[in-house]
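Quick one before lunch.
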Amino acid sequence: MKLYYFQGSCALAPHITLEWAGADYELEEVKRSDTRKEDFLKNINPYGKVPVLELDDGRKIHQVNALQNWLAKHFPDAKLGASDENGDNEMQILMSYFNGDVHPAFTPFFLTFRYTDNEDHQPGIKEAAARELDFHLTNLDTQMAGRQWVMGDQRSILDPYLFVFCNWARFLPKSLDEYPNLKAFAGRMMADDGVQAAMKAQGLIK
Ligand SMILES: N[C@@H](CCC(=O)N[C@@H](CS)C(=O)NCC(=O)O)C(=O)O
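Model of the glutathione complex:
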């Protein structure tokens, strides 16, 4: 298996999950600026995004939620999926929220140029995006109160995804200090060997 990623991207989530799953995988770094080029769109992901996991038979899995669910299903011994229907419902609701609401809310903040051709409008867009992100991070901070991991006592495919948001929060006007439950969660993740291995491999830490 091969994971396509670029440094600082959400591909860190499946990367950590591959580590937790004990999977045999290799990495392929791409440039963000190449994700809209013909070669990437034609041969890697027509949607122009990482992460992409290329399987040994050439099939490609992308979309963080689909990929995380695929990993939970194909590495059951890692116990990163839900163990019953209620747990699965809760997990899928959160996975949809992460992928459909929180994650795209970062895009106008980081890739502001996509939302206006007028440079003077960019600060206003960033400010509005930061307000929307504050709403989501406050929700997530409340959600994490009294929880070790997103699903409670057991870690799951949701944790690496939440960790990505926590890392991105350092670029926002409000620091992670203002979301104490998220800060504590990020600290627990940072202490994990799989997280350290993935971050080192991507050059995010030494
Ligand atoms: N809905 C997509 C979003 C993935 C996404 O936003 N990927 C970003 C990196 S975090 C990306 O590849 N951006 C490249 C671009 O938009 O130019 C998914 O779930 O995989």
